[in-house]
Specification:
The chain is an alpha+beta fold and about 140 residues long. About 30% of the residues lie in helices and about 25% in strands. The chain has a five-stranded mixed β-sheet with strand order 1-2-3-4-5, with helices on both faces. Bound molecules: coenzyme A (COA).
């Protein structure tokens, strides 16, 4: 294994990144839509093992006060070896001294707690796929 992190949007194989979401699993993404979302994000992070894309995350940020991290996902065979922590630590460092929010996949809260995140008591959301969010355990009505 020769794992490296990359923060530029050059030469990205978006179907392969969408495949990471599928396999992680973190849902289904259309490669084209995902590439546009990444281009509009303040920060992207790609993990590679030599030439192979194995992990991804992105963040939106105003650069001064607030940021949000989304879409952290790693291929199953590379999970539980510290890569998630490595990506999150690099993202936090690059986002700088801003507040960061995210929502954990149900069951992954402990991973984020270890990285210094705490549950929010008054978080509210208005979602495109509200029924899906309720179904997947993110939202109560
Ligand atoms: C969640 C995910 C990104 C974590 O990455 P990872 O590389 O497997 O995690 P790491 O090996 O870096 O774990 C770091 C620490 O968190 C702990 N941890 C990992 N998952 C955990 C969980 N579900 N609950 C509690 N602790 C957890 C590890 O034991 C490790 O602890 P240590 O530092 O004391 O050894 C990865 O498993 C993944 O891609 N999962 C599928 C997609 C997903 O759910 N993404 C999260 C979106 S919110």
């Amino acid at each position: 294994m020769n794992i490296t992190l990359h923060f530029e949007l050059n030469n990205i194989d978006w179907p392969k990144i969408a495949e990471i979401f599928e396999k992680a699993p973190l849902g289904t993404r259309e490669p084209e839509k995902l590439s546009r979302a990444a281009a509009n994000s303040a920060l992207v992070c790609f993990a590679k093992d030599r030439d192979r894309f194995i992990g991804f995350a992105r963040a939106i940020s105003d650069g001064e006060y607030q940021a949000a991290i989304y879409d952290l996902c790693i291929l199953p065979e590379y999970q539980s070896h510290g890569l998630g922590k490595k990506i999150m630590t690099a993202m936090k460092e690059r986002l700088g001294p801003v507040s960061i929010i995210l929502f954990a996949v149900p069951g992954k809260e402990g991973f984020y707690k270890k990285l210094g995140f705490a549950p929010m008591l008054t978080a509210m959301g208005s979602f495109q796929d509200e029924d899906g969010m309720v179904e997947r355990g993110y939202l109560e009505r």
